[in-house]
Amino acid sequence: MKAWVLHDKNDIRLEEREIPVPKRGEVLLRVGAVGICGSDIQRVFVTGAHHMPLIPGHEFSGVAESVGEGTDPSLIGKRYGVFPLIPCRKCGPCLQKKYELCRNYDYLGSRRDGAYAEFVTAPAENLIPLPEKVSLEEAAMLEPLSVAMHALLRGRPRKEETVALIGLGTIGLMLAMLLKEEGITPLCIGNRMSQSKKCQRLGIPEEDFYNVRDGGALSWLAERTKGRMPEVVFECVGKEETYSLTVDALSPAGRAVLVGNPASAMGLSQDIYWKLLRNQLTLTGTWNSSFTGEADDDWHRVLGLIEEGRISPKNLISHRLSLPDLMDGLTLMRDKREDYTKIILSLQPREN
Ligand SMILES: [Zn+2]
Ligand SMILES: [Zn+2]
Question: CB–CB of 71/85 below 8 Å?
Answer without folding.
Answer: no
